[in-house]
Structure formats: C-alpha cells, structure tokens
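Sample log: Mucin desulfatase.
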Amino acid sequence: MNNENLLKEVISQFDFVGEVIQIRPYGSGHINDTYLVEFKIKHMGVVPIILQRMNTNIFKNPVQLMENILNVTTFLRKKIIQYGGDPERETLTVILNKNGKPYCQDSEGHYWRGYHFITGATSYDEVKTDEDFYQSGLAFGKFQSLLSDFPAHTLYETIPDFHNTRARLEVFKKAVEEDIINRAKDVQKEIQFILQREELANKLISMQENQELPLRVTHNDTKLNNILIDDKTHQGLCIIDLDTVMPGLAVNDFGDSIRFGASTALEDEKDLSKVQCDMHLFEVYTKGFIQGCQGQLTLAEMQALPLGALVMTFECGMRFLTDYLQGDTYFKIQYSTHNLDRCRTQLKLVADMEKKWNEMNYIVEKYIS
Ligand code: ADP
Ligand code: GN1
Ligand code: MG
C-alpha cells in the first residue's frame, strides 16, 4: 500500500472528527517518521496533530515504549497542574485510538502513535539566541528534577545499553572488523581517532558502576530539537521525544545537549573549520541546567559535567561511524556520506573540547555553589 493510503488507514483508527485537509512530513528527527496532519473541524477551524510511525527496527517493543510514555506524561501532567502550569502545552498528550490504546497498527504491521500538536512553539536545529539555549538548559534540568520521584522500576528499558559507551565501542570495533560494505579503508583517520581514545568509553560507565554517579530517570536524547521553545515567551515549553526516558546519568543529558547545541555548526556541516564547541554557549547551558536541576545534582555529578559533554560527543561520533560502516541502517540519511559527515563534526568537537578542557572545567566550577 502506498504511504498516503497507509496514513489514511491509520487516521481512521483514531476517533478524529473533521476532514483531513493536509498531511505532510514534519521535523528533522533521525529516528521516527513524523507527519503533521491537519483536520478541519466545524466551529473549531484547523486542528493539527502529530502522527508518527515508530521505528521498530530500533525500538523493538513499541507497546512497552508507549506504556512508558503514557506513564511519564501522566506523571508530568499532575506535577504541571500542581505548580499551576498548562498541561496541554508543557508535556506531550498521547492520542488514544478507538480501542483506548496509545498506539495503532497498520495492515503492514507498522506501529503508529498520535500526539496533540503543540502550537506557538518551535524546535530548533541550531541555537539562534544564547537566551534560548539557556532556557533549554533550564527546561532539561527541570524535566529531570520533575521526574526525580518517578518510580524508575516501572520503566521499560526501550534500548538496552543506550548510553553504555563501553558496549558501543565493542559494537564499533566489530563493525570495523566486519567492514561489510568495504568502507573502512576510506575512514581510517576517523577509526584511528576513536581507537586512540578508547579509554573515554569506560569513564562514565565505571563511575556509574562504582556508584560515584547515581542513576536517575533521565531523557537520554536531549538535543535541541527535542525541546519546544515558546514563540512568545522564549521559555523552554515542552520536552518531547520521550522514547528513551530511562534510568541514566544526568551528565549524559547535559552532555548530549552540549554536543549538539554548543556547536557552532550543524551536526552535518561539511566544512569542519566552522565546527567548534562555543565556550559562551557551554557556559549559558551549564548555568541553565544546574539551575533547572534545583539543587538535586551531587557535587560529583556537577564536576563530571564536562566529561559528560566529551563522552556523549565521542559516543555519538562513534555511533555515526558505526552506522556508516554497517551500511546506514540506524539513522535516517539524505545522501550516502551523511553519517560520515555527522561523524566528522562530532570528532572535530571532541578534539576542540580536549583543547578547551581546562576552560570547560573552570566554567563549571563557577556554578558549583
Ligand atoms: P525523532 O525521534 O525522529 O527525533 P521526534 O519525536 O523528536 O522524532 O519528532 C520529530 C520532530 O517533530 C520534533 O523535532 C518536533 O519538531 C516535531 N514534534 C514532535 N512532536 C511534536 C508535538 N507534539 N508538537 C509539535 N511538534 C512536534
Ligand atoms: C537520534 O531521535 P533523534 O533524532 O532526536 C538518536 C540520538 C542521537 C541523535 C543524533 C533513539 O535522536 O541518540 O544522539 O539522533 N536517538 C536514538 O542526532 O537513537
Ligand atoms: Mg527527536
């Protein structure tokens, strides 16, 4: 069946009223297929929703995943009401299907979900103003502190070992060794760069194992386009893309935001001379994140924030290269060397952070009170 008919089939499984007037691909996520669907409803005008085909190549158990999302958003909704916020805009609202399920399946077996579309807000692929980045740090910190009393044991692990950098290094080495599409010869420089920094893969995971860093309920995918910024107030409005909310390390949430948002260029910039980790952006995010965590971070966690940035960037670069070597089966790509370009920006950022290591630590020290 063609995509349009599949979409119509899926839409008919939800209890929508009104006439569909537009369906179009939406956003720049690397994982799910996201569509904006607009309905024309009598007396209400145009009502948009988000429809997503979940990536079951990556998320093996979409039913458990949606149970996580429903539980987390229900929990957040109560907290938002308690502090007088707007639960319709400050967290995702899952749309149930006609049978009351938070997902539906099309005739080809794909799993789909719907969310209320949050209007008057934007997800950015790059930082436009320092203040927006500060606000996103505040919001990601607050997200974590709101979930600090969420019962972590009720969460399914949607991707095992998601930020186990040590395990990811092993997968990377296997991909190099197997070299199934004969690409390794062209990326020796990048492979060697990663292998020379093998010890980075152990750092945070050992601190977690030694209980130097506590496990918390974290987002695990905190890049800038996974937060909606309010167009009017410019505050971080809603944290989205909750597929990977699982027990994890706070420093990883911090680090993933830095690798994406504190970069002076897009994640897939080809001209590496444009790619640096901007220390001013690093500072504004640090300030926002620590504030947003509302005193919950331990001293060890705060001191490990620069390491979070370095390791998350290293891990992401390694993941892009692994996917390139394995034939681009994980991240969506627009052209054949897309994952390689993405890998190169991450490795450039790693090298830049190494140079700026003292400065990064000095900045973090300023915000440890
Ligand atoms: P992926 O896992 O592929 O990254 P996301 O859940 O992040 O998918 O969604 C992709 C994009 O769709 C987001 O970056 C954002 O721009 C947009 N989006 C997702 N959910 C909503 C929503 N409820 N309201 C408005 N925009 C949304
Ligand atoms: C993916 O889903 P999206 O596009 O927000 C990936 C992250 C990577 C990121 C790199 C589930 O995020 O882990 O850091 O791409 N998400 C998953 O841009 O693997
Ligand atoms: Mg996303």
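Observation: The domain at 3-119 is CATH 3.30.200.20 (Phosphorylase Kinase; domain 1).
Observation: The chain has 13 helices and eleven strands.
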